[in-house]
Design brief:
- Two copies of one chain form a homodimer.
- Chain A is an alpha+beta fold.
- Chain A has one domain: Roll (Thiol Ester Dehydrase, Chain A).
- Chain A is elongated and about 50 Å long.
- Strand 2 of chain A pairs antiparallel with strand 2 of chain B, so a sheet runs across the interface.
């Protein structure tokens, strides 16, 4: 198998206005935490909180486009949200292969997103299958 | 708390061309499984497989817009992909409250997506926090 235990992948993602507005246009999640600056500040945040599921979109891109092979499919994902993300945050993403299951052609990754202050934004794991 | 154990919520989601193209435009996941009909068929699917993370976008919408209160935030999500989704599929979504943790203002939901043939597309759980 092309994947090896502990292989590490790194990416950077920018929570741009286009990503933020595009996500809202696509999924219509206009919860006040995401769109109302004063509401978000009133709840203890620095400003409007970006949608956590933007990160799952980045994971889709990572799996579909950034691996050494393209014949892959997602089996499962888990994500924990640890700190809020804000407009224009630049996030560092790291994924490490944490398990290889050759008899079922599956590979497990652990991942983390950090912001520029090295605060953990979110962490989790996902499993992909290699399509034969 | 406004939420009660076993409260059930139902929604329907349509995997339209706009959702499919919008997701690709937003996250740039042009993996051949998603965009190349012949590639997908060659791997045993009925056609281009829609991105699983479209479902996580729907979950964002559900949490942000479809609950009886708006002062909520996602803590964590887990999803298992069981069957492929295709363009124009109409998905039935059901979420049931599986845990209420008043001392930390958290509520856990189990969810399922099914297609029109009642095939399970995906299942999982998520936890939200109620913002005071």
């Amino acid at each position: 198998m092309i994947f090896k235990l502990n292989d590490k992948f790194e990416k950077e993602f920018h929570i741009s206005g286009d990503i933020y507005k595009g996500f809202i246009n696509l999924f219509q999640d206009n919860n006040p935490l995401h769109v109302d600056e004063l509401f978000a500040i009133g709840k203890g945040f620095k400003g409007r909180v970006m949608h956590g599921n933007i990160l799952n979109g980045y994971i889709s891109y990572f799996i579909g486009e950034c691996l050494p092979i393209k014949n892959v499919i997602i089996h499962s994902q888990e994500i924990q949200y640890k700190n809020a993300i804000y407009l224009n945050d630049v996030l560092y993403f790291e994924a490490i292969i944490s398990g290889i299951y050759e008899s079922v052609n599956a590979v497990e990754f652990k991942f983390i997103f950090k912001n520029k202050e090295s605060k953990i934004i979110s962490k989790g794991k996902f499993q992909i299958g290699v399509l034969l």
